[in-house]
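Figure 2 data, in text form.
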Amino acid sequence: MRTFIHLSDVHFGIHEQPIVEAVEGLIEKTEADMVICAGDLTQWADPEEFEMARSWIDKIEGWGHEVLVVPGNHDVPSSDLVQRFIKPHSRWDRFMGEDRNPWLERDGLAILGLNTARGLVVKNGKISDDQIALMRERFATASADALRVLVCHHPLWKLPRGDERGDAIQNQAAAVAATDDAGIDLILTGHNHTSSVHRTLDLPRGDGSALAIQAGTAFSTRIRTEPPSFNIIHANRLDCAIRVMGWDGDHYVERRQHRYVREHDEAHWQPTEASAASVIAQLAQEAE
């Protein structure tokens, strides 16, 4: 069983330091295999914000955690149009490294991050044909028993964005087909500032056997309809438990728990009674 701390949309530059420290406290004491940040590490992609993000990552790595990050649309400069359209990722490359599609393979784990942020796309993301080819190539070499994880900032489907639905990624049909063909188990995203878990089987164009898992905004003030949140995920190819940790104004508490199981790695994930009970409890809380 692998353990991931799945964050997104930390937005250094408009972050709240007490929330940052609360997240750090949980990360430090959690025996996680990897800390994953699915984009939007900054608010305006200013060098000062990237410096804060880099220092934060260095701190986490100093505690012995492996960290995987991918760019989000806020990590592309918005006010400097020359940077945005000519060298949209130059600041990211300077502070975070030039590999914007990181690939990590460990015993029983294969994880690919894809950069979906584009200088010519203001808000929504895109997976290119070259990235789709890379996805197929990488996962084709993974061991048969490896948990297969895809990380990107923008959701591949129209997933919850507060009380509405966000936009699907550009080149969606080809990207979704590739995740199905590659046998991906978990698709971890952010962008919508809303935590949610979905079987791809239940989503338009999604007939694969993966779980699409969104993380909320970890510690920024860019709140939509829910307070800051992040996910703690325990998973292998047959069992996946997601704990949604939410900010209550003073500290992080467990808001919801989802658990899915399946008989073999090509079967569809099935929600357990614990997952259903958590959803019912959430609906009751929202109705109060």
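Caption note: The mean pLDDT is 90.
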